[in-house]
Every structure is written in structure tokens, then in C-alpha cells.
Amino acid sequence: MNWGSSLTEEEKKWQDHFDRRLETVGGKNTYTTAFLDPRQLELAEAVLRKKEGLSYSVYGGYPEAERNVIHVFPAQFQGGLPPVRAVVIEWSGDYESIGHRDLQGAVLALGLRRDQVGDIIVLDRGRAVIMVLESKAEYICSNLAQVGRVAVSCSSVDPDRLALAKNNGKEIRGTVASLRLDSLLSLGFGISRSRVVRLIKGGVVMVNWRPISSPALQLTEGDQISLRGRGRLLLDQVEGETRKGRIRLRLKKYS
Q1: All domains in the chain, ordered by first residue
Q2: What is the average per-residue pLDDT within 184-189?
């Protein structure tokens, strides 16, 4: 799906707000955003490309981070990376008892905003990493004692100390009648078309980090679909048609 240069009213307002914040950068003054999703990062960089005399760095704690922080500073200075910290969470017993959604809910229940939290990476054997703004790391470690009913321990570390492997996703192959959004969601998450339509109309689905309300939206290779609370799909490759005219494709699913 090609968005072109079109922006929604909400996106225009976001860019205007970001542009106004950049007016404070100069002399010794810098500006650091909260965590941005990929669409917000794209919007921010479009503004920054038009600004002379400003430099910036982008960091989410590891190279493949989906959510990132931008640090903007005068071009004549070396600004450094944005202040991102990794909170390592560990638990024992049933390692599968805690997932991405549980961790996010537990951290937000401490009073944090969603944009103060970056990527959440669930590792093996009862370990997970949550990228957060540096100013919130010790607060989380001091107050997060359990996730759901499971007791956890927390520590704050420099993200560079962690060897986080790239998440290559789970490969899903199948056929669909068309590249409609509802067809791909149904295949990728294994749920009925009727339920998929309700989810889309309920406002919990985004394509390329934009809210979508039309089940009939046609997608193309490279498009990413997010289903709130369930994960993300990448339309990785369209592989041709079957003899009956159905479309063969490959998806990658990220939890």
C-alpha cells in the first residue's frame, strides 16, 4: 500500500507540534522526544530534513527496535544517543506464564504513559527486557514486584550490555482470495473473517502504523499490520497464483 505524501489531520497536528518543539533547540538547548512508533518517526524525520543547523540521533535500545527516541541538538555539537535504559525482568516457575501483553499492562499500571515505554522483548527461560526512558527505569525497578500473579525481580542496565538477537518472526504461508486486509488478518492470526471485520471496525487494527477502519483495504508487499494485543504481521512476499486463482503469499508474524 502506497501512502504517498498524504497526511491525516491528526498527523499534520503531530508534525506541527513537533516543529514547534524544535524551535527550542539552539545554543546549549536540546530536545528529546518520548518513544515514537515507526509512523511518528517517519513524520519527525520529514520535518527534520527541512531544518538547517540541526542534527539528531535515533535510538530504541538495540538496532532493530520498532519504537525509538529522537534526540535533537545543534549541528555544531556532538549530541550523543537518546537516554534509553533497559529494564531486565526475571521470574521463575512457568516461563510461559508471562507474555508481552502482561508486561506492558503491569508497567503501565504503575502510572507510566505508553510513550514512556519502548519495545518489550520476551526472551527464553523467564526473562524479558523492556526499553524505557532513562528517567523511569529506577522507578519501575522499585515498584514492579509482580506481573499478574507472578513475582518478578527487576534490574536496570545499559542496553548495550544486552545481546538482543533480531526477531525474524514466525513464517506463515497460505492462500487468500485477495490481498484485502481482512483476508490477511484472518490468515495470519487464525481468526474468522467475521471477527476480523469487527476488530477492524472496532479501531484496534493499524496498517503501517495508521488506524484503519476498512476491511476491504488492499495491501502490497512490505505492508505491516498491527492488531492491538495480538502482535504484528508483515506481508513479506506475494508468491503468485494457484491454478484456481487464489493468491499464494508469505507472512511473518511478530508477537
Answers
A1: 9-74 (3.30.1370.160), 84-161 (3.30.70.330), 170-254 (3.10.290.10)
A2: 93
